[in-house]
Please model this.
Amino acid sequence: MLKYLTVLLDDTSVSFCHYSERNRINPITLDYLRKAVRFAMLENLNVQFVWPAHQLPEEYKDVIASIDHTNIAPLSLTEDADITVLSMTEFHQCPDNANVVARITLQELIEGADILASLFSKANRVNIVITNPDDFHDNDIEAYRSALTKLSETIYNEWASGHDIQVNLLTDRMLLTEMNNCNAGHESITLAPDGRFYACPAFYYGNDKCLGSIDEELDIKNQQLFSLDYSPICRKCDAWHCRRCVWLNKKYTFEVNTPGHEQCVMSHIERQVARELSLRIKNLHGFTPGEEIKELDYLDPFDILQK
Amino acid sequence: MAVRMAVLDLVAGHAHMDAKTAVQGHVMVLVRGGVWVPAKEVVQVVAVDIATNLTKQTGRSWQHGLAKNVTFIVTKDCQLACKYCYLVGKNDKERLTWEVAKSAIDYILSRESIFTESSVIWDFIGGEPFLEIELIDRICDYIKTEMYRLNHHWFNSYRFSFSTNGINYDSPKVQEFISKNRQHLSIGITIDGTKRKHDLNRIWKGDGPERGSYNDVVRNIPLWLQQFPDGGTKVTISSADIAYIKESVLHLYELGIKEVNINVVFEDVWKEGDDALFEQQLLELADEIIDKDYYYGHACSFFAEYIGKPLDSVKDNGNWCGAGRMLAVDAAGNFYPCTRFAAYSLRDKKPIIIGNVRDGIDFNKLRPFLTLDRITQSPQKCRECEVASGCAWCQGENYDAADTDTIFQRSTAICKMHKARVRANNYYWNKLFRKLEMEGKRDEFESNRPKHNSPIC
Amino acid sequence: MRKEVGRVTTEERDEIQTLFERKNGLNELAKILTPDNNELYEKLVMDLGETETKFQNWWNSMASKYNWESTPEGHWEIDFNDCVIYLVTPV
Model:
C-alpha cells in the first residue's frame, strides 16, 4: 500500500540516493505541484519534497506549505530541511543534531572512513549512500568490511559517550526486527518535474518507463513485484536494514524484485559488522539492542536458495 | 506394458554361458528390436532419446531433466513458414559461424567449476538446424575432442539433440552425421498429423500459392523410425487445428510413431468455444486409444495421470521450465537463458541477453531465472486453482506477453484449454482403469506404467 | 524372455552407467581421431582398453557378489532407471 509521495521540485533537486541529478534547471510546473499536493491529500500520502539548490518562486512555497510534509534539501537550504544531503566536501559543515544523507563514493569510503566518522559526533542520524555501487566487486569485500569496522569503532565510542548516533549501514540492523527497506514502488512513489510517476527518482533520471501521470492516473503494473513477498531472494533474507534498491535490482538483474550479487554481499558485510558492534554494545549497556543477530556462513542468500 | 519402458537406458551384461565363471563372452548390448551384437560393433544402444523438450509428459527426459542444456542457434532460416511459429524474426542472414561456436564451446568447457551438471545436452536449433549440417558436424567433432582432451566430466555423459522439420533428414550429409554420432543422438522430427492438419500450418516459405510440407516430411519417417524406433514427435495445436487432433494422433500412430507429444500454443490465440471443441476431440481420442488398445504401446502426452490436481504452494513451487538453467548462443555470440529470449523469438520485448562469448555470462542476469518459482509468478487464480498440475507455461511467452518487462508474470492464455484437457484426461483415466479392472489387467498396467520426471523445457 | 533376477545399488548402477557412456564416447571419438594427433590418439587407445576391462570387471564382480540366476543361453541386462538386473533368454 502506498504511504509516501516524493516530489522532485526540479531536475536539479539534490540526489539523496545512488543516482545523479541533472545539471540543467527544469522546475516542476506549479500546476503539477498543486495536483501533487491534492493527490497526496486524496490518497492520504506523506509527502517528501526534494529541493534544488536554487531558489523556487514564492508561489511554489505557498503550495508546499499547504500540506504537512518533509523537506529533503541540500546543505544550502539546511535551515528548512528535515533531511540534509551532504557531499563529501560538505561533511565538515554538518549541522548539529541533524538527520543527514552522506553521499560518498565507494573508494572514498574505503580510503577515507575517518572523514565520514567525523560526522558521527555532530549528527543524530547519518544515512550513508554510496554513489557508485556499480564499482563494488568481490575483491572489495575485505576493504569494505575493514572500512565499516572502522566506522563501527567510532559509533561504539559515540554510544559509550552517551551519544546514540544512528548510522543506517550499521545501527539500523541492530534495532530492527523485520525488513525495513526503501520500498519504492510498493510504499512510495515519485512525481517528477515531467508530471509523471516513477518508482523512485532514479528511474526518472535513468529515463525508465513511467508509472502513469498526475494528469491521468497512477498506473503501477505488476506492482506486487515491488513488494517483499514477491522477491524470492529478499523474503528469505534477514539483512533487514538493506536498502533493497529496486533500481539497482533492475539495473543488475533486469528485474525489480531480484537483487544483484553485489547488493546482497554489501548488505551482508554490513550485517556482519553490525553483529559485531551489537555484541560490543551489549557489553557496554548490558543489553542487546533489538534481537540478537545470528552468525551466518554466507554473504549472498542466493547461494542458500540454490542449495 | 501400456507404455514402453525407457529402453534407451538398457545395457546388457556379458554374454552369459555360465555366469559364475564366464568372463570370455562378449559384452552385449541391446539394440532395439531384440537383436544383440558384440559390443565392439555396437552403435545404437542409446540412440533413442527424443529431444528433452518433447518429453515432459512422459517421464523420458534424459538424466531426469538435470542435464545442462547448451543450445546453438545455428541459423534463423527455415525452408518452412509455419503459421504458428513463434519465431517472428526468422531470416537467412544470421548464421552461426564456426568462430563464434568455437568461442562458446571454449568458454563453456573451460569453466567446469561453473557448469557442474553431471550431464550435458548440446542442442542445435534453428530455424531448421539441418540446414547447417556441415557446421554442426564440425562443432560436434570439436566438442567431443575437447571434452576428451580436457578430461571434462561431460565426456562421460552427453547427447547431441535436434528438433527438425525432417525435410532433409535423408540427405547424405545428415545421414553421415547420424552414422558418426549415433550413440549420442536425440532427433525429433516434427509432423503434425494427417496431411490436411499438417499442411494447414506447416507450409513452404515463399511467394505463390500455399504449399504444404507433409509429403516432404512423411517420406522420411520410415528411415527415421528405422534409425530411432522410439522417436517421438511434437505436435503443436493452435485454434485452427483443434478439429484435427484425434485423426492426427491416430495417423501418427499408424505411421509407426509411438510417442506423440502435443501442446497447445501458449500464445493468446484462443477463441470462444475452442475449449469445448478441444475437449470433444480429446474425448474422442481417448475412446479410440482405449477401445483399440493403443495405450499398451503408444503414448500421447495429452493424457497423463498427474495432471489436473491442486498444487501445494510450498512443495509444488518449482518453475515449469528450465529457462536460465539452459544456455543458448546465437550468431552474434550472445548468450540467452533460453532461445525464447532471443530477439527472433520475441514479438514485443527486447531480448534478454545474459552475456556473450567474449565477456562470459553475467550471473546477475541469471538470478531471476534461477530463483523464479511458480507462486511468485502466478496470479491468484492460478495459486488457488484446483486443477493446477500439468498446466504449463513458457517463460519466454510469459515475458513477451507481460505488462512490464518481467519474467514474473505468468500468462494464463491457455487456462480454458488446460481445464478442457483436465476434464478429458479425467475421462481417459476413469475409462481406462475401469476397463483394465474388468479385464483383470490393472496390476500388470500399474507395474509397467511410465515414471514421471520433473518437467523441463 | 526377460526375467528380473536382481538389483544393484544406485552407486553400482552409476558406476556401470558411467563406464557404458564412456565406452560409447570413446568409440565415437575413435571415428574422428587419427594417429596424426599423437597425444590424444595414444590416450584414446589406452583408454578404450582400460574402459573395456573395467566394464567387464563390473559385471564379473556384480555376478559374483549377487549370484544372479543364469542360464547357458541367457545374458543379463541392467535397466539404468531402476537398477534392476534382468536375465534375458531366447524364447
User: Anything to note?
Assistant: Chain B is about 30% helix and 15% strand.
